[in-house]
């Protein structure tokens, strides 16, 4: 991966981590009080892949400030959480202490985890907005495969590449390709938690990966695909600009009268 792009994105995620934690996505007080849990697609993915996570070793890739890491540890999993942002990991450590759970927190690039962690996990887990920061999705899938034990599982719940194409949904305006075509540079304030946030570092470098590219990279890295589902709803507004949820509490985006896929779930087992 391009070292300059990594450092640019690290600065942006340090800035986001500094202000995330008391907002509509990351309610830290609610997490500490036990009012926060995984969303329905993350729950369904874990249930289908492994059932109860108690006693399992889980590697949470690109953990950010550690919400899901803490939720998995509360269920009895042994969780190692990896992120490249030291600011995010410091906040994750504080939240874990407040929640009374143990996490192993590792500062590392998701495509280059420490060798000591290889073949150490029953589950490699990553969700919602991770792959657009990765230049080489084949390297990401290969790193995830190295982390998993033989027979271990990949649980990936991610933004659908069709939904990633849109800058705004109403009106529909695209600013991103469907398939990989190199780096895309952006410079803007705001975050998915609050589009009005002022950040200390606003530049990012992002990459498109089509669904076919993602699945092919998984297969070539040695993952056996067990389940792939495209979801025409989202449990939350992970974009920060969706309209009100439907009556069932789920968010949908329609082109004409047809909902488009917003998220997908990929479950795989290491061969």
Walk me through what this model shows:
With 271 residues, this protein is of the alpha/beta class. It has one domain (39-180, 206-270): Vaccinia Virus protein VP39 (Rossmann fold, 3-Layer(aba) Sandwich). It has 8 helices and 13 strands. It has helices at residues 3-19, 28-33, 40-49, 67-74, 86-99, 137-147, 161-164, 211-220; strands at residues 57-61, 78-83, 104-107, 121-127, 148-159, 166-168, 173-174, 184-187, 203-206, 223-231, 254-255, 258-259, 263-270. The strands form 4 sheets. The chain has a 7-stranded mixed sheet with strand order 3-2-1-4-5-13-10, with helices on both faces. A two-stranded antiparallel ribbon has the order 6-7. α1 (3-19) runs parallel beside α5 (86-99) and α6 (137-147) packs across α8 (211-220). The longest helix is centred in the first third of the chain and has 17 residues, at 3-19. It is globular.
């Amino acid at each position: 991966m391009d070292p300059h792009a990594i450092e640019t994105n690290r600065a942006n995620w340090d800035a986001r981590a500094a202000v995330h934690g008391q907002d509509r996505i990351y309610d830290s007080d609610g997490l500490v009080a036990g009012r926060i849990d995984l969303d329905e697609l993350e729950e369904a993915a874990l249930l289908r892949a492994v059932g109860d996570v108690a006693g399992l070793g889980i590697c949470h890739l690109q953990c950010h400030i550690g919400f899901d890491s803490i939720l998995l540890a509360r269920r009895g999993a042994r969780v190692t959480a990896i992120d490249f942002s030291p600011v995010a990991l410091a906040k994750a450590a504080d939240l874990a202490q407040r929640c009374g759970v143990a996490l192993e927190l590792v500062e590392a690039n998701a495509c280059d985890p420490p060798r000591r962690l290889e073949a150490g996990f029953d589950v490699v887990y990553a969700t919602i907005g991770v792959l657009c920061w990765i230049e080489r999705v084949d390297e990401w899938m290969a790193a995830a495969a190295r982390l998993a034990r033989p027979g271990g599982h990949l649980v990936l719940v991610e933004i659908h590449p069709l939904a990633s194409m849109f800058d705004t949904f109403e009106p529909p305006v695209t600013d991103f390709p469907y398939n990989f075509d190199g780096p895309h540079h952006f410079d803007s304030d705001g975050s998915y938690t609050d589009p009005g946030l002022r950040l200390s570092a606003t530049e990012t470098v992002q990459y498109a990966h089509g669904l076919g590219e993602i699945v092919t990279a998984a297969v070539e890295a040695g993952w056996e695909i067990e389940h792939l589902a495209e979801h025409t709803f989202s449990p939350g507004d992970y974009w920060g600009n969706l309209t009100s949820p439907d009556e069932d509490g789920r968010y949908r985006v329609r082109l004409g009268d047809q909902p488009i896929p917003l998220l997908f779930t990929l479950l795989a087992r290491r061969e």
